Amino acid sequence: MKAIVQDEYGQPDVLRVEDLPTPVPGPDDVLIRVRAAGVDYGVWHTMTGLPLIARLGFGLRRPRNRVLGMDVAGVVEAVGAKVTDLRPGDEVYGAGAGTFAQFALARPAKLARKPAGLSFVQAAAVPASGVTALRAVRDVGRVAAGDRVLVIGAGGGVGSFAVQLAAGAGARVTGVCSTAKGDLVRSLGAQAVIDYTREPLAGTYDVIIDIAGNRPLSQLRGLLTDQGRLVLIGGEEGDRWFGGMLDRPLRAQLANPFTRQSLRMLLALVRTADLDALRELIESGAVRPAVGRTYPLAEAPTAVGDLAAGNAAGKLVITVD
């Protein structure tokens, strides 16, 4: 099978197409014929091995898993002996291992049936970004009708879902994005848009969802009501050792006992229950994937580079023949 592999950490030029044996499913595995795979910041972190603390999981000197990719949409090719709820021919979406390839393995607990009416490309845009947004809006942000919600990074993968989910809950949503992404964010349900390249953040909000941001915690808290909720998702700035994973989340956790505001860091894992919830929302028309651009498998390095450069409006998706 064709796959995108890397044997060292670095920038997109360390990625290449290689022929590999098709994975063999173990007793608890599902083998998926990949039709499309989403591109997210987890891919970038795996490729670069940054922040360095993450190499405890990725592999200290070189990547432990040579094939990139997590988000997947495709067709079940085979199942392990202990898998009872899926069978060959089922169309699924979710999270797997090494999904930038023609075939990939996944666990049933991270898969669900593909939403009816979605193409494989659209479905591949949902798992990691959609689940993260769902948990941010529903569980941590506890967004309710009438809330004023600020989504920072509203034009990206997670942000595009967060805007829709918050608006669908009856909130008044303000999206923060670049000039080029303003029309997309408005079309997803934002009632106001702040172009961060031209104007500062302003206003008062019940909920702030900050996606991969680096704004000071004090600035974000100043925009919250006295009992507002701040949800921090990721963080692409900081030093090589810890990146944005330590500073703001740690300070938020330390401040929590001394304020009526809720300051939380969110790290969401893809689960079948959340994928099922998203499928219901998608099939009802309440949510739609915002696919910015697609790339054939051989152009996966370009896709990851575009993501890192901030050129992604919506979610980038790799297509696999």
Automatic annotation (TrEMBL):
It comes from the Bacteria. This is NAD(P)-dependent alcohol dehydrogenase. Residues 10-318 form the Enoyl reductase (ER) domain. It comes from Luedemannella flava. SMART domains: PKS_ER. Pfam families: ADH_N, ADH_zinc_N_2.
